[in-house]
Amino acid sequence: MLILSLSALSIPIFAQSATPSSSPPTAALITTSIDKSSYTLGDTIVISGQVQSVVIGTPLVIQIFDPNNSLVQVAQIDVSQDGKYTDTIKAVGPYWKLNGSYTVKVQYGPPNVTAQTTFTFQSSPTTTSNVFQLKDPSSQQTFNVNYTITGGTVKTMIIDAQSLSVIVSVNSTSDGTISLQLPRALIDSKTNSGQDDAFIILIDGAEVKSQSESANNDFRNITVQFLQGDQDIEIIGTQIVPEFGPIAALVLAIAIISIIAVSAKTGLRFMPKY
């Protein structure tokens, strides 16, 4: 009896020692993420994630803190039935001042059900001024196009002779503007009476109005606003690079003079003599 008793007491001891590390890891009660790692003033921040257990009637709280851990924005949203959530926040207002690392914190239900992520923020869009050397493949002329852009970078510029336009391709990381100094020798827009006319401006195929335009004897200056994600800005005029540029015109003139000289010396005639 004593042996059986001792054997019975030893069974739960062995069973208990065999189970401590066999439980699977638990899923996060809440997750959160953002669509980009950095933003500038005026950008739209897309915040999304999922909660493990949905409590009907309980809102999800989103808080954004600046580098000094001061609250700059707060929002409450509903969670869908499958536990997913999405919200957009515009980075504008009096509290969006500091440059640096910002924290997005989401809370759902009890105070301990939280998740967070970070992003970098710049309170003023970066302004870039440069010169793009645009070459016409037909006439081999090169034109210097001065530009200033905020909210993105210029990738390339091309001449579309068929549509009488210059197409500027941009990488728009945020809402911004681009100012272009277009040589009249490159592109111009005139009325039937010879007066300056407004350019037609298309962004990704949709017509827009320029923010401002000015001109002098040599240049047309325009400023165009674009949105984050826009790619191609097309400026359409009434005339584009002449078919014969300075070099081609010089070659043509020399050829004509040579033909006249040869014909005068040899008596060659292009029209029959009557």
Radius of gyration (CA) equals 34 Å
Give the strand tally: 18
Domain count: the total is 2
Helix content: 10-25%
Global mean pLDDT: 84
Q: Runs with pLDDT <50, length 5+? A: 1-20, 244-249
Amount of beta strand: over 45%
N to C succession of SSEs = HEEEEEEEEEEEEEEEEEEH
Distance between the termini: 147 Å
Please explain how this structure is put together:
This protein has 274 residues and is mainly beta. The chain folds into 2 domains: 25-122, Sandwich (Immunoglobulin-like); 127-246. The chain contains 2 helices and 18 strands. The strands form 4 sheets. Strands 9, 10, 11, 13, 14, 15, 16 and 17 form an 8-stranded antiparallel sheet that branches. The chain has a 5-stranded mixed sheet with strand order 2-8-7-4-5, with no helix packed on it. A hairpin with a 2-residue loop joins β13 and β14 (206-208). It starts with a helix and ends in an 8-residue tail after the last helix. The model is unreliable at 1-20 and 244-249 (pLDDT under 50).
Brief description of this entry?
By secondary structure, the protein is mainly beta.
Secondary structure layout plus pairing:
Elements: H1 2-17, E1 30-34, E2 38-40, E3 44-51, E4 60-65, E5 71-77, E6 84-90, E7 100-108, E8 114-122, E9 127-135, E10 142-160, E11 165-183, E12 187-188, E13 200-203, E14 206-208, E15 212-215, E16 219-226, E17 232-236, E18 239-240, H2 246-266
Parallel strand pairs: 2-8
Antiparallel strand pairs: 1-3, 3-6, 4-5, 4-7, 7-8, 9-10, 10-11, 11-16, 11-17, 12-18, 13-14, 13-17, 15-16
